[in-house]
Amino acid sequence: MLRPPLRFSSGVYNNPITQLIGTERFSVVVNFSCSGIQGVKFFVISVIFFYLLERENFKTKPIQLFVLICFGALASLIGNSIRITSLIAIGTLGDPDWALGNFHSYTGVLLLLCLLSLFFIALNQLYSKKPVVGAIKSLVKNNIAAPYLLPFACLLFLSLFFKVFSPSWDWWYPLKILLAGYVVWFFKNDYKKLIQINFSWFPIFIGIIIAAIWIFIPFTHSPESNREAFLNSESYIKIIWISFKLLGPAY
């Protein structure tokens, strides 16, 4: 027997037949790929893979790891429900283009990264063989790949985060560069050991080309309204933004 669409007093309705949920102004189709199951699978696979690589650093039992994974999977499903609710709320009360654009495209990945980060922190705090104080810092410091990967990973995470909350122009770009710069500063002693500084015109030339492309992309691949918002902003804002855009390729 086919169930009719459910309509609530708040104006929100759900049609189980078409998998449509939303309001009269904005609605979305929530099928299997949007249900949160994919996020749970990615979370579980990533956690198991990480644990197999780093298991000698932990004193956890299989049942303890299983409980942590169950909590993480439950948090993933709850987070996805909040994500869909927020998507409908933004589309109904705010900007539908923002809801279907940046918010829809990036919140799923951002949620997964946040859950993985929280899981690794919990695993270190609860079951690390090293002292709890400084366990995470020690894990990062003793990883030879961290100085190379973490600045880029930080910049990538911040890009996803600010894309969710920047429906138009990338106004938060300078802040991303400052935070990624802090990560570079954190590993400054490692770079002194690993990197030999030699002067050459060739990398400077390549850097100028990359910087030019880095600035050119936002002006050619952004909607006209976004470009106008930037061009009509205050002069000091444009100077600061372009300056950090030139600095960005250095990472």
Keywords:
251 residues, mainly alpha, 4-stranded antiparallel sheet, 10 helices, disordered N terminus
The quaternary organization reads as single chain
How much β-strand is present in the residues?
under 5%
Measured as a percent range, the helix fraction is: 55-70%
Q: Could you report the average pLDDT, rounded to the nearest whole number?
A: 76
Strand order across the biggest sheet? 1-2-3-4
Number of helices: 10
Termini gap: 59 Å
What is the 3D shape? flat
The radius of gyration computed from the alpha-carbon positions, rounded to a whole number of angstroms, is: 23 Å
**How would a textbook summarize the main sheet?**
4 strands, antiparallel
H and E string = EEEEHHHHHHHHHH
Indicate the structural class: mainly alpha
Number of strands: 4
Question: Which residues form runs of ≥5 with pLDDT under 50?
Answer: 1-9
